[in-house]
Write a structure and sequence with these properties.
- The structure is a homodimer.
- The first copy, chain A, has two domains: 9-43 and 284-392, Aspartate Aminotransferase, domain 1 (Alpha-Beta Complex); 45-282, Aspartate Aminotransferase, domain 2.
- Helices cover 42% and strands 13% of the residues of chain A.
- The first copy, chain A, contains 14 helices and 15 strands.
- Chain A has a seven-stranded mixed β-sheet with strand order 2-10-9-8-7-3-4, sandwiched between helices.
- In chain A, a hairpin with a 2-residue loop joins β5 and β6.
- Chains A and B meet through α1, α3, α5, α6 and α10 of A and α1, α3, α5, α6 and α10 of B.
Chain lengths: 395, 395
């Protein structure tokens, strides 16, 4: 008998709670407000088809060959140009989705037992990417404006137990949809610099603002103290798996070596496709159409919530961009227990507890307003309200 | 000042020696027999262009959306059908190149200090992928037929120090071009089963045979005791980054969780492209053209070696497939010292020492016969012989 001895870290790895929940909710006719899928209406299929022709017609052999681990030079330059601070293209590392950036950062910055700080709640995929490197994840208390700077100072640790970094998602955060205010950003960057604490800033949703752009990134305020992650998944399409990381010289070479060992390089074909599509200011024309669609659907969700949740002790926020809204159920109600009753009524959501590193608030849940249509959102929120009402009433 | 504390593993990570060597050899007019790049003549650009049209025309939204971490179901089925033993598509995990399979295997099977066995010499990229998990890599003595089974038994270790697996590349191995014989395969699989030792079989080159197919894979002989890795990089194109791993139930779920954390999934667009190209038996028509080209170029290299190395105490093998030939310099000569003299004469190779986990043979070097044309191979081998002659003669 072959003796398959698994690494200790394998025992800590788990299937995504969300993925397991989504399986439960996969029944015909269900309205899913659970997943984090961009609306396929926003995928510029024709532009990609044209880009395919150009790339394979003019540069096919290079697009299909092995390539540099850093990424395709014109794409690295285009990304540096997109960003609102002075970025050297040599600092840009192309990754296979920004999920890979989290994996590389974990490999380069986390030892077994290292303290790593996250928001409350935070992106589940980040926790999954960090877990194989076996950190001690510590949640920093957060309010509607983001992490609380005093709690950060209290939890940063010292000596060998000093936190390696704070992972933070300032714009239209997954899962809460909240945005870090200008004053909180300023205070956070100042405090982190005082503490000598690196920041890992994840910004997949920043371009999806509805009325006003969010404040400047944290990294723009202190580039040598931050790693910045971006993605084309929400402004072009996730299926190409194209993300990037901007890293200071102190860590870039090691991220690059980790990248090379992880998958040699991100597909050169995909990098050229996106580089080609971006030419001539395409994103400047395309992204506003995504903003308009998602704003319309957020509004539909807010209106449906106002109407359907009337008389229920339910709270929710008003996201200023992105894909998600955060809802809090009446006292004593638990989202995980509500889910099967909602699914019975043909609507699905993600219980918020999945997104907490510790001390989960069982009353919270995440709703996506981008995958379902406005009409489906209306029906779905009605069904959710019915489930809450049934659950709240004495049995 | 921000305090960037790197993980201990980061200090063990290094830039690829080959990559550094290739930089030195990047001068205009040089004939590179160094790199491991498939010939771009073999890339089916037109077939990919047609596949792009079909995929984006008929299935664009799904191809550009997030997808399952396991991979695209029709591609998993096509891969199971390709393989010469009974493979359940549920055992197939699509990876971002087979390099990623190495990364996932390392995460799931290697603890810090775990003993891991490799051939002598072995694929450098595997050593790079394993390094971040901090194994103790032990080289098993090997001859022209592959690993020596008695030395395997001697080095397998016991108790907590028992090897987690043997990594082996039986067909037209990188770097040596050698192939494990039928009798050695049988003996190895039997011994590994006796020892309870898992085998990790890497087979990127197996389809590139010249006169006869290689013997059956190790995994076909004991599927529950082996992880098998394959790739489309050498039969279609490396720039799409498409590989796969076949794993038994004892490890598949953990590899899948590691995959999800690493990059969510391999680009769905690329998976559909390859799935589309493969339809109608495309590989059965296409791969023989690659075999013929590479055989022709191997013959050109062998003829040039016979002619140019006459009178020199230089040895080389006759690869029966793949991309590489292994050469041994006269006694006392070191490949690393010969390289600058070869580059002066406009030819480059990779010193063999890069490929040894320990006890490197400094006289060895790797030559690729696939990237350069037959005419370039002729010129390049002439230049290499001149460098050896100059180096061997008393100064």
């Amino acid at each position: 008998m072959t003796n398959w001895t698994l690494a200790a870290r394998a025992a800590k790895m788990n299937p995504s709670v969300i993925r397991e929940i989504l399986k439960v909710t996969e029944k015909p006719g269900i309205i899913s407000l659970a997943g984090g899928l961009p609306s396929p209406k926003t995928f510029p299929v024709d532009a990609f088809a044209k880009a395919c022709e150009v790339v394979l017609g003019h540069d096919g052999a290079a697009a299909l060959q092995y390539a540099a681990s850093e990424g395709y030079a014109p794409l690295r330059e285009a990304i540096a140009d997109l960003l609102p601070w002075n970025v050297d293209p040599d600092q840009v590392l192309i990754t296979t989705g920004s999920q890979q950036a989290l994996d590389l950062i974990a490999k380069v910055l986390i030892d077994e037992g290292s303290r790593v700080l996250v928001e409350t709640p935070t992106y589940l995929g980040a926790l999954q990417a960090f877990t194989p490197m076996e950190p001690q994840v510590v949640a920093v208390d957060s309010d509607d404006e983001g992490v609380l700077v005093d709690d950060l100072a209290a939890k940063v640790g010292s000596g060998a137990d000093k936190a390696r970094f704070l992972y933070v998602l300032p714009n239209f955060q997954n899962p809460t949809g909240r945005t870090m205010s200008e004053s909180r950003r300023a205070a956070l960057v100042e405090k982190a610099a005082q503490l000598g604490l690196p920041l890992v800033e994840d910004n997949p949703y920043g371009d999806l603002w509805f009325d006003n752009p969010p404040p400047a990134p944290l990294t723009a305020r202190n580039p040598e103290g931050c790693i910045y992650m971006g993605s084309f998944s929400k402004v072009l399409a996730p299926g190409l798996r194209l993300g990037y990381v901007i890293a200071p010289k102190a860590v870039f070479p090691k991220l690059l070596q980790a990248k090379q060992a992880a998958d040699l390089h991100t597909p050169g074909f995909n990098q050229r496709m996106v580089s080609e599509v971006m030419k001539g200011g395409f994103l400047d024309r395309h992204v506003p159409t995504i903003r308009a669609l998602y704003k319309h659907q957020r509004d539909a969700m807010l209106e449906a919530l106002e109407r359907e949740m009337a008389g229920l002790d339910v709270q929710w926020n008003t996201p200023q961009g992105g894909m998600f809204l955060w809802l809090r159920l009446p006292a004593g109600m638990r989202a995980i227990e509500l889910l099967p009753q909602a699914v019975e009524r043909n609507v699905a959501f993600v219980p918020g507890a999945a997104f907490y590193a510790d001390n989960a608030d069982p009353r919270t849940l995440r709703l996506s307003f981008v995958t379902a249509s406005s009409a489906q959102i209306n029906t779905g929120i009605g069904a959710l309200a019915a489930a809450i009402r049934a659950s709240a009433s004495p049995r």
